[in-house]
Amino acid sequence: MTQAPQAPKATRRRHDREIVALAVPAFGALIAEPLFLMADTAIVGHLGTAQLAGLGVASALLTTAVSIFVFLAYATTAAVARRVGAGDLPAAIRQGMDGIWLATLLGIAVIAVFVPTAPALVELFGTSDTAAPYAVTYLRISALGIPAMLVVLAATGVLRGLQDTRTPLYVAIAGFIANAVLNAGLVYGADLGIAGSAWGTVIAQFGMAAAYLFVVVRGARKHGASLRPDAAGIRACAQAGAPLLVRTLSLRAVLMIATAVAARLGDADIAAHQIILSLWSLLAFALDAIAIAGQAIIGRYLGAGDTQGAREACRRMVEWGIAVGVVLGGLVIACRPLFLPLFTSDSAVHDIALPALLMVALSQPICGIVYVLDGVLMGAGDGPYLARAMLLVLAVFAPVALLIPTLGGGLTAVWGAMTLMMTVRMLTLWLRTRSGRWIVTGATR
Questions:
Q1: What are the tens digits of pLDDT across the range 386-424?
Q2: Alpha-carbon distance 207 to 152, whole Å?
Q3: 16: closest CA among 313, 278, 299?
Q4: Contact call for residues 263 and 414 (beta carbons, < 8 A)
Q5: How confident is the model at residue 7, as a pLDDT?
Q6: Where does the sequence pass through the membrane (predicted)?
Q7: Which residue intervals of 340-410 are DSSP H helices?
Q8: Fewer CB under 10 Å: which end of the chain, C or N?
Q9: Which long-range contacts (C-beta less than 8 Å, at least 24 apart) are formed by 261-265?
Q10: 138 near 43, Cβ under 8 Å?
Q11: DSSP alpha helices (H): ranges in 129-165?
Q12: DSSP state, 163?
């Protein structure tokens, strides 16, 4: 990382207050998002095994489709934060509106793909004949909510760039409650079955999008920013997001390869892998909250031309990432015997998962550095480097992981490869931040 003099205690405390003020609400909003799926799963699960299996397939497809476009939040956060730092709020909100218009267009395009191809997509998963009709029904209806989901991503990025992570938390909580109530009412009260669960989620997502749009439109009118779509601005948003799309696809490829390798090791191994992956994802939320704070804070400092403030904030956030990673790793080690029985009573799965969980625990400080520096470089608008770095990481990880079954390795080796992947990511990000090439000041990069 770029070397900077140790900041005075007063400066460190100021950075700490900023990080906590942004990261804590962001963490709450991140946790609320997977609760949507948990609520759907709990309600649909009582309809029958075939319905639950159909939900699992459709949800995997929807989650993948939406997560690919997470750059709508990341790129918008950085661009808006820069303009906030430069003191140009109208331009910041205008930039945010461009991101929202892009999200709308992408959402419509995804609907055009998902609705007619739903049966083929479900079949690609090897879904059983009994579960496939439910998966197709849920997928076709839920796909109608994708534009709202993508608008929520972009609008979340706008508010984060404006240094507001509380509003997304409130909207996420309200959305979760509405989703649970609508699902229960439509599935059982209206007797719509799995279709009711899908419609409940669609309605909740559009309600969340409307709430975000109300806040953004109110801000636009207050500062005199135009709400009309601007072709040049939308193209600029797409160009800024393209490298982050490459980064996200590369990361998804890593996770898919790891799961495919675990599946080849046996049923107990893939069962243990899924349990560990769910924990790994949960731990990632805590670290990602600091990264979100980093996107907003770094973008604001660079927009204001404060390079020293950006360096000091970067250093302090890395310290936070390491500290949180150590705490999370310690919790994983301490809770290993208690965690696994929550998911399965199979002793074979326990025996396979325990050493792999230790690998996950030891890697958490590394993950802390990775998430923070990833957020710092996103906040700096350094997307092209992040794309190249993640492609390199994928090129290192793939052959190592794919050799594991051939060499007789087990699930611990798979998570050893995951730790190697995070270590390579840490090195690529550390070298970039140390070089100082990410520090580009001004309202635009």
A1: 999 999 999 999 999 999 999 999 999 999 999 999 999
A2: 10
A3: 313
A4: no
A5: 60
A6: 19-37, 57-80, 100-121, 141-162, 169-190, 196-217, 244-263, 275-299, 320-340, 352-373, 385-407, 413-431
A7: 347-379, 383-402
A8: C
A9: 261/401, 261/402, 261/404, 261/405, 261/414, 262/411, 262/414, 264/405, 265/404, 265/405, 265/410, 265/411, 265/414
A10: no
A11: 132-143, 146-161
A12: T
Distances (CA, A) of 299 to 22, 70, 244: 13, 18, 16
- At residue 411, what is the residue type? L
The CA distance from 195 to 138, in Å, is 6
Q: How far apart are CA 63 and CA 350, in angstroms?
A: 28
Note whether 268 and 346 are within 8 A (CB).
yes
Residues present in the chain in total:
445
* Positions in the chain short of pLDDT 50: 1-4
How far is the C-alpha of 299 from the C-alpha of 85, rounded, in Å? 7
Q: Which of 436, 391, 340 is nearest to 1 (CA)?
A: 436
Integer Cα distance of 370 and 383 in angstroms: 15
User: What is the tens place of the pLDDT at every residue in 178-227?
Assistant: 999 999 999 999 999 999 999 999 999 999 999 999 999 999 999 999 99
Q: Using DSSP, how many helices (H) and how many strands (E) does the chain show?
A: 14, 0
Q: Which pair of structure tokens corresponds to residue 348? A: 């074979």
Question: Tokens at residue 23, please?
Answer: 């990261």
CB-facing half-sphere around the CA of 303: CA atoms within 13 A: 27
Residue corresponding to tokens 């074979």: 348
Q: Coil, strand or helix: which one is 299?
A: helix
Q: Which residue in this structure is represented by tokens 């191809």?
A: 117
DSSP 442: S
- Mention every residue, 6+ apart, whose C-beta is less than 8 A from residue 181: none
Percent helix, strand, coil in the chain, to 5, is: 85, 0, 15
* Residue-wise burial string across 408-431, b where 16 or more C-beta atoms lie within 10 A, e elsewhere: ebbbbbbbbbbbbbbbbbbbbbee
